[in-house]
Amino acid sequence: MRPGGQAQFIATPLPPETGTSLAATRAWALDRLHEPLTRADLAAHATTSVRTLTRRFHDETGLSPPQWLLHQRVIRAQELLETTDLPMDQVARLSGFATTHSLRQHLSRRTGLTPSA
């Protein structure tokens, strides 16, 4: 004890980094954008609960897992539209959209552009 009854301050080091980043799970998901992915799929890959995944995903990206996936799918569709001559239905499928209509809607909503633009 210090004078005046005050306890001694002992500095304790920060715990070691536990590797809680979801970077590996995001990379895994990027390789599978063409597949239907759920929060449960992402949580299973990250070996965490859906609730923890959702919280950590938001902390790291600022988005929920579905929002992040949609954003990445729009980016993938843009890349394919700009760099290939693939038909729209194939671009939609490779980007993870069920239909060309869905691709058009999301691309227009996110970018303000149509696929042909």
Explain how this protein is built:
This protein is mainly α and 117 residues long. Helix content is 57%, strand content 0%. The chain is built from six helices and no strands. It has helices spanning 23-30, 39-46, 50-61, 65-83, 88-95, 100-111. The longest helix is centred in the middle third of the chain and has 19 residues, at 65-83. The termini are far apart. Mean pLDDT is 84; it is low at 6-18.
Give the secondary structure arrangement, pairings included.
Blueprint: H1 23-30, H2 39-46, H3 50-61, H4 65-83, H5 88-95, H6 100-111
Helix pairs in contact: 1-2, 2-3, 4-5, 4-6
Percent range for β-strand residues: under 5%
Rg over alpha carbons: 22 Å
Q: Using DSSP, what is the number of strands?
A: 0
Query: How far from one another are the termini?
Result: 73 Å
Largest beta-sheet characterization: none
Helix and strand element order: HHHHHH
Shape: elongated
